[in-house]
Specification:
mainly alpha; about 400 residues
Length: about 400
């Protein structure tokens, strides 16, 4: 077999080793530049997290109130409908904060007092004394158990000392409420106008993507947020009433924990269930067992099999891995507020990627063959490979 010598043009077209390494070097520099830009953006966001939370909360509140505005707008002018809707929602939020949050904070203080007495006088609580005996049987000394208990007590006291200023400075400060109300009104007034401008006045090439993105955002994120709020409220009421009937202490605190944990993806139900069982143990293992069975049925049956598919079935939820990753990143970067807004931010990012992907597929259908075309392409590629192997032999 004879091989033809390669022409000088073919040899010159090959990239040299120097150009290859130069291209790789610039690629690495580009990646490092983007990473540095992302780090700078995150650092800047961390510096202005307070105003961002106010703006984000106001935008979310306006988005949730807007269906109520459209309902009142059928019977009154739009400015009056916005005012009435805002007053109704703020009154409901204020009532919930007054009844639920303050009662929860008070019961949290009672819980710390109970734990303090439990640590200092364990002999007054026979179930806890049996638990200590079991721990000592595992090899833990009395000093180790006492040190761990004191550390837990210190963490709880630090937590309640942090809860009270947060409640007082964010939710009860008149200036903050006024800012939230003002921003919410502006979002409700200008929101439809901005929405129409993005759909009709942007460049034609970007209009298709923006329209698809806004539609997906309204369908998935809107349904997810409203449905999650409704689901959390239902579970808070159901579990709270059940805990009250069973005789679990600190019912208001437990109901608030259930409501908050419903917004934590995948693991929220386990967290609230474990905390509730811990509360019930203070009234005996029988109460804890009954509550454990009750909350398992409610979370796995009512929440997981009945309410969630019906309420959140038409909304596109987050991928479990993405939701947990967003929760960890938000908590690490911005603390409790970051954890609260992590999943909505991740949902917006996911919607953006999905809209971009759908737009790309519509504009470049040749790059996304159907199943039949994919099968034909595989067969043609297989035949070509077989022909090459036959020619080489």
């Amino acid at each position: 077999m004879s091989s033809k010598p390669e022409s000088p043009a073919t040899i010159s077209d090959r990239p040299s080793a120097h150009s290859t390494w130069q291209r790789r070097f610039f690629m690495v520099l580009t990646i490092l530049g983007w990473l540095a830009l992302a780090a700078a953006i995150i650092w800047g966001l961390a510096k202005i997290i307070g105003p961002l939370v106010l703006v984000g909360f106001s935008a979310l509140l306006a988005y949730l109130i807007f269906p109520l505005v459209r309902f009142f707008q059928r019977h009154m002018p739009r400015p009056l409908a916005i005012l009435v809707s805002l007053l109704v929602v703020l009154a409901v939020i204020g009532l919930i904060l007054y009844v639920l949050v303050f009662a929860a904070v008070q019961q949290f203080g009672q819980l710390i007092g109970f734990i303090t007495d439990l640590i200092q006088h364990p002999q007054n609580y026979p179930p806890f004394q049996s638990f200590l005996t079991w721990l000592q049987g595992l090899g833990l000394s009395q000093d180790q158990i006492h040190t761990s208990a004191q550390q837990i007590l210190g963490d709880l006291q630090q937590a309640i000392s942090g809860v009270v200023p947060i409640v007082g400075s964010i939710f009860l400060t008149s200036i903050t409420l006024l800012l939230v109300a003002t921003l919410t009104v502006y979002f409700m007034i200008d929101g439809p106008r901005v929405n129409s401008w993005l759909r009709q006045k942007t460049p034609v090439k970007a209009r298709q993507f923006l329209t698809m993105f806004l539609d997906e955002l309204d369908r998935s994120l809107g349904g997810f947020v409203r449905g999650q709020v409704l689901l959390a409220t239902i579970m808070m009421v159901v579990v709270g009433l059940g805990a009250f009937i069973i005789g679990v202490p600190y019912v208001f605190l437990l109901a608030l924990i259930v409501f908050v944990c419903e917004f934590i993806p995948q693991i929220g139900a386990y967290i609230s269930g474990a905390i509730g069982i811990g509360f019930a143990l203070s009234h005996g293992w029988q109460t804890a067992l009954i509550y454990g069975i009750f909350v398992t049925i409610m979370q796995a049956g009512l929440d997981g099999q009945i309410l969630s598919p019906r309420i959140l079935g038409h909304s596109v939820g987050l991928n479990p891995i993405l939701s947990i990753f967003a929760l960890l990143v938000g908590t690490a970067l911005f603390g409790l507020l970051g954890a609260f807004f992590a999943c909505p931010a991740a949902a917006i990012l996911q919607t953006f990627v999905l809209a971009f992907w759908k737009t790309w597929r519509e504009r470049h259908p040749d790059q996304f063959p159907t199943d039949e075309q994919e099968q034909q392409l595989v067969e043609v590629t297989g035949h070509e490979g077989h022909d090459r192997s036959a020619m080489s032999t």
